[in-house]
Design a protein that fits this description.
- By secondary structure, the protein is mainly beta.
- The protein has three domains: 112 residues, Jelly Rolls; 104 residues, Galactose-binding domain-like (Jelly Rolls); 116 residues, Sandwich (Jelly Rolls).
- Helix content is 13%, strand content 56%.
- The chain contains six helices and 26 strands.
- Strands 1, 2, 21, 24 and 26 form a five-stranded antiparallel β-sheet that branches. A five-stranded antiparallel β-sheet has the order 5-4-12-7-10. Strands 3-19-14-17 form a four-stranded antiparallel β-sheet.
Length: 374
């Protein structure tokens, strides 16, 4: 009994000592040591899959050919054929949503609706309503028509209704029209806007992106932006243009869902076969970390740098490497769960810094924290 009491007192004193020097009890008990003291967080992010997988994760978005420096067009609706009818005992009207993006709306000239009448019994009028306002109401013969909606009547969200008038004395029949080559086109410009979707797994696996197009070699300057972030500018560009981007180049501009490319030029430019290639081999992952003058001073003084990260799973065994601004830091063998590596003063500079994860294996990494401990 006396021996048990002595052991209990020793254990209490040991635990108390650990608490006094600031070691968290849970970490001491589990062996999961973490940083003690104060820290300043510079950045936190998830990486997803890092390293070599041997698989391609890529998709090419074809954005077409067009002329810069002139009026641009955006197709709101395009249908090869559609029919409408109206009788006393039934009807087949059509209703379409016609959203117009804010970018296009800002420089919108008009919306033009064009179509051909292929069949009609001419029992009643063909009627178009734009946002419940009648913009076309006539007996439509077998020919082409164009309806112009002024910019003042166009909003971000619009509706187009196509209906027929009643058949009059032909109470047993129905007014009917068959339209072919139906198009609703927004005219705007001269800046060109093109949208494409990015999915969460594509941003997670992003290794590089590639912009490609050709020009006939006119004189002038072309500027291309991604979600407002400039990614290309050139005076007198080459006939074949290929521009690659790493995540660090444009990572801040990427977003899940709709992404918008905007193109403008100082003169008329023909852009042929514009393509945006997404992804590539899943290998190195880079992220940008910004540091202030005070951050650098703290690191060069009493602080030390740490990168903490979680290895959610090891997909392929190998050696993980981490580089800061191109300089490799010491990384021991990593294990599933929390890992921490240190970096020295002088590794981080004031302003933009690039941290790259790569390796001969493959890992799923999340919860990365770059910090200065002091």
């Amino acid at each position: 009994m006396d021996e048990f009491v002595v052991l209990l007192i020793v254990a209490v004193v040991a635990i108390g000592g650990l608490m006094l020097i600031g070691t968290p009890l849970a970490n001491w008990a589990t062996g999961n040591w973490t940083s003690t003291g104060n820290f300043r967080l510079l950045s936190s992010f998830d990486l997803g899959r890092v390293g070599l997988s041997g698989n391609e994760s890529s998709r090419t978005v074809n954005l077409g050919s067009f002329m810069l420096g002139e009026t641009q067009t955006d197709v709101l609706k395009d249908m090869a054929t559609l029919g409408v009818s109206q009788g006393y005992f039934g009807a087949d009207p059509k209703k379409f949503d016609m959203p117009v993006s804010a970018n296009i709306l800002a420089t919108l000239k008009d919306v033009k609706i064009s179509f051909n009448i292929e069949e009609s019994n001419l029992y009643g009028n063909l009627v178009f309503k734009w946002n419940d306002k009648v913009v076309f109401d006539k007996m439509a013969n077998l020919r082409s028509y164009e309806i112009v909606i002024p910019a003042a009547d166009v909003k971000a969200s619009n509706t187009l209704d196509i209906v027929c008038g009643t058949p009059g004395l032909y109470f047993w029949a129905a007014t009917s029209y068959k339209l072919i080559g139906f198009k609703a086109i927004a005219e705007y410009g001269p800046e060109k806007f093109l949208s494409f979707a990015l999915y969460p797994q594509e941003i997670e696996a992003w290794s590089k992106g590639t912009l490609r197009f050709s020009t006939p070699g006119q004189a002038g300057e072309i500027t291309i932006k991604l979600n407002g972030y400039e990614i290309y500018r050139s005076s007198n560009p080459e006939r074949q243009v290929t521009k690659e981007f790493t995540y660090s180049d444009i990572g801040g501009a990427l977003r899940v869902g709709d992404n918008v490319l905007s193109l403008k030029s100082t003169s008329a430019f023909a852009i042929d076969n514009l393509q945006f290639e997404i992804g590539g081999p899943s290998g190195a992952k880079e992220r940008e970390v910004n540091a202030t003058k005070d951050d650098v001073a703290l690191l060069n003084g009493a602080g030390r740098g740490e990168i903490e990260f979680n290895v959610d799973s090891i997909l392929k065994e190998g050696a993980l490497t981490i580089k800061i601004n191109g300089k490799q830091i010491n990384v021991q063998a990593v294990t599933t769960g929390k890992n921490t590596v240190q970096f020295d003063s002088g590794e981080i500079v004031e302003g933009r810094n690039t941290i790259a994860f790569a390796g001969t294996g493959s890992w799923s990494i999340s919860g990365v924290k770059v910090r200065i401990v002091y």
